[in-house]
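Issue 218. Parser rejects a valid record. Input:
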Amino acid sequence: MGQGTTDAIRFPEASSQDVLTGILREGAQKLLTDAIEAEVAAYIEAHKAVQDARGHRLVVRNGHKDERELQTGVGPVKVRQPRVNDRRIDEDGRRIRFTSSILPPYLRKTRSIEELIPWLYLKGISTGDFSEALMALLGPEAPGLSASTVVRLKEVWQRDYEAWRKRSLADKRYVYFWVDGIHFNVRLEEGRQCILVVLGATPEGRKELVAVQDGLRESEQSWRELLLDLKSRGLAELPKLAVGDGALGFWAALRKVFGETGEQRCWVHKTANVLNYLPKGKQGKAKGMLHDIWMAETKVEAERAFDLFVETYEAKYPKAAECLAKDRDVLLTFYDFPAEHWMHIRTTNPIESTFATVRLRTRKTKGCGSRVATLTMVFRLTQCAEQHWRALNGSKLLDDVIRGVQFVDGLRKDAA
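Output the parser choked on:
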């Protein structure tokens, strides 16, 4: 039986265009599968010499992940991605994880070129390889995306970014800041090691991108330059609260530039840091005890749970207890703000969720990335994500926060 007959049996009611789409879809599936398999094989081969004390390899294949469906320009394509077991630990004590540069965990649809190009750039794909990468993801849309077309798109976005970073902030006010230093697998020029990101909550409860700037690691000086730049462009009103990771040089800079802004350490970061000092067998119970602290209904209950954790672990695991205890006050600041806002201000999740798919702290690409191009791509990616950010719960209470109304355990003091 000929191939044409086979296709006719497969698509008995399909037009010739539908048949062609089916063939393209099968081709896209095979191309994606082969590319991902090759990527995983190369990753494992590159680390085959890394072994533990018993001579066992630390980076190995571990079957496949569950099949998922990817919506592409040629219709749904099913992909089954190999699973990699990477047991190496980075310099910060974090488990290294393999993330596909071709197919990130979040990707379910490929409808937006404006989201894909920034993502591909930040994952280390060179401009010359964009057409091939996009063809697998977008189907027949992609052939027109030559290297020159991509370059022109990047130039337009770069102009947008330059105008945005110089915009006046005189008419802006932000009640809350979320801050973080984002590390990508693009090695920046001039020794600039990371991208500093600030998100803000407006008085209406919307989340907005406030600043994207490169920095020397996450140093106090870099953050100070960023905050002073915000003030110089007219941001006169201080945010009432800033939320961030305890490791940032941001806090020292904040106290010098916006000295009256409250400080809230991120509970997700703190939990991960504390658990790193505990054996795996103890982490489940410890995580539950930490959960009891930040989920307590009142500050008194949180303090009691805090004391219990420290007393439980300080004898055998003093580093875990110390890691938690040193930030005690700034971990519980959120109790002085509306309870409706707690889920938003206990963590830096607005930034983490946006950049989780392109964040990579463990490796750098061999080539250097353009400083401006990287900033532009981060800006563009965040702009795309911004369209889907949800408003704060209890947005009407932001006016009380601005006016300095006191809250006790999440309730107005006069109602507590």
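Fixed in the parser; the record now loads. The chain has a mean pLDDT of 81.
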